[in-house]
Backbone:
């Protein structure tokens, strides 16, 4: 017999086990890349490899986070809601590692290089703004901040939409040739954001009809 | 964090691993070969033939005597060679995919022998020649050059080749020949990157040089690397090497050399004219619009000691080539 995920969540033990599973799973990419780095198996240019890898996983966790609401509404997967904050924080976690790796392995923490990258390089600026936005959302993700901000909390966290668009621009902007991979992720983002636009339009129509 | 400090031992004093590993074989060979060995000139091929676990590329039979006769090149003082495995495993060759490891993975089936090269345009002796005939009159020699990629990584590579100027002279360009245009093989059946739907590059890949750049003694056509023939991922069987320009100028797997009066329309410049100029001289003062060219990662650059070094104007060859561009605004002609 196969237990559905919803059934697993009915028992406290099930909820706890599943929480640990979904908590540990996103750490696998980090474990993998650290293992490859320690065993010197990242090719000739490990700096570039590691920065690109962390950036790509940031984008993936962002898309996973953004897919929680559509999945809940479309498929009735209510349990996903429990993990939305965790995956939002994992997005911030990987974005921070990505930025840290860039500053360390590509720029070598040279102040003059960092100043120039942050003032002159559009795709770095866009990426940095996106990361700053994620930091703001991460800090205000606690229960305390939800209570304190009240209805403004939701408004603030709508920032995740412009952040996701900035992240996609940041990603597309540094491609030299070949847009296949960018198109793949951009399409997913388009579906996730398009769903929300469609949902709002429909809801507004319903409200108008009732009046 | 990168901490700059003077090393205790100058890197020029450190014996390269390949040499270190060769010492026993060298002594054995010396004892066995004796006087015979001493009489031969230093050969590029023998230098790297030991202590390598990576795949080697001997090349076609007809090339062997020329490869073996290639004279050893002078090392660059204070700069050690990028290990063979990285040189043949970390490549930009978009005909075989966009990833750095794609060319090694996907180019092994490239048929590089027999190979023909068309010589055409403003030249007295046009024609299509087999590579064997094209190479026959030229003595090969090793040249150890820096290679600076436009993506801000760099290597030091022992090429085997010959002066492009010597080849050009043989075909007697006319007075109208102001530029040389090079074209890479276009064969989507062998080159999966040329079948890619999302690629922004137009095939075939085209590069070009001004005549004086092409005639410069530093400019070579390479047929080998690390003592062997070129692997396909490095541009077998014939590639250009222009060490003072970004790597993309050094076009691979050449099938046509055309002499023109007009500046050739080169691939990267056509694709993104704001980012890639015709000249593409290495220049730390002129950034790529999207990233800095002030520094480079000299490979291998391990994470725990990132080898970030300052990029030098004309990739360190300014003494030899800066005069080619005197009076030119290098910001405009990037």
Residues:
């Amino acid at each position: 017999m196969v237990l559905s995920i919803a059934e697993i969540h009915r028992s406290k033990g099930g909820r706890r086990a599943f929480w640990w599973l979904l908590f540990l799973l996103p750490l696998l990419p980090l474990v993998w890349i650290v293992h490859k780095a320690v065993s010197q198996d990242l090719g000739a240019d490990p700096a570039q490899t590691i920065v690109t890898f962390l950036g790509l996983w940031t984008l993936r966790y962002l898309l996973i986070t953004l897919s929680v609401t559509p999945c809940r509404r479309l498929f009735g997967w209510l349990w996903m809601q429990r993990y939305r904050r965790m995956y939002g924080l994992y997005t911030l976690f990987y974005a921070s590692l990505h930025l840290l790796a860039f500053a360390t392995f590509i720029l070598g923490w040279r102040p003059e290089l960092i100043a120039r990258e942050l003032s002159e390089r559009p795709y770095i600026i866009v990426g940095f703004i996106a990361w700053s936005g994620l930091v703001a959302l991460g800090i205000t993700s606690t229960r305390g901040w939800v209570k304190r901000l009240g209805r403004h909390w939701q408004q603030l966290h709508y920032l995740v939409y412009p952040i996701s668009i900035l992240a996609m621009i940041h990603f597309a902007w540094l491609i030299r040739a070949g847009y296949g991979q960018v198109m793949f992720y951009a399409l997913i983002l388009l579906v996730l954001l398009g769903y929300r636009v469609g949902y709002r339009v429909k809801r507004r129509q319903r409200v108008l009809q009732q009046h | 964090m990168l901490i700059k400090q003077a090393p205790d031992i100058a890197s020029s004093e450190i014996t390269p691993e390949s040499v270190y590993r060769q010492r026993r074989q060298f002594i054995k060979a010396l004892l066995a070969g004796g006087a015979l060995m001493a009489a031969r000139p230093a050969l590029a091929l023998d230098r790297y033939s030991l202590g390598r676990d990576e795949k080697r590329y001997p090349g076609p039979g007809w090339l062997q005597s020329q490869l073996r006769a290639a004279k050893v090149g002078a090392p660059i003082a204070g700069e050690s060679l990028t290990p063979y495995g990285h040189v043949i495993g970390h490549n930009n060759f978009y005909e075989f995919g966009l990833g750095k490891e794609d060319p090694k993975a996907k180019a092994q089936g490239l048929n590089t022998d027999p190979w023909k090269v068309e010589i055409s345009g403003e030249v007295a002796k046009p024609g299509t020649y087999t590579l064997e005939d094209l190479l026959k009159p030229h003595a090969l020699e090793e040249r150890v050059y820096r290679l600076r990629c436009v993506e801000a990584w760099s290597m030091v590579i022992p090429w085997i080749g010959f002066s492009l100027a010597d080849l050009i002279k043989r075909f007697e360009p006319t007075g109208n020949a102001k530029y040389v245009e090079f074209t890479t093989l276009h064969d989507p059946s062998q080159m999966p990157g040329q079948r890619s739907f999302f690629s922004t590059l137009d095939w075939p890949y085209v590069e070009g040089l001004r005549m004086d750049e092409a005639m410069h003694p530093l400019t070579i056509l390479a047929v080998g690397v690390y003592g062997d023939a070129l692997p396909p991922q490095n541009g077998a069987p014939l590639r250009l090497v222009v060490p003072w320009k970004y790597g993309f100028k050094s076009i691979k797997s050449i099938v046509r050399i055309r002499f023109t009066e007009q500046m050739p329309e080169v691939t990267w410049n056509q694709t993104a004219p704001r980012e890639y100029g015709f000249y593409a001289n290495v220049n730390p003062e002129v950034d790529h619009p999207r990233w800095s060219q002030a520094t480079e990662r000299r490979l291998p650059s391990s994470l725990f000691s990132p080898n970030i070094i300052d990029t030098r104007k004309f990739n360190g060859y300014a003494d030899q080539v800066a005069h080619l561009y005197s009076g030119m605004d290098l910001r405009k002609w990037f």
About this structure: The radius of gyration of chain A is 19 Å.
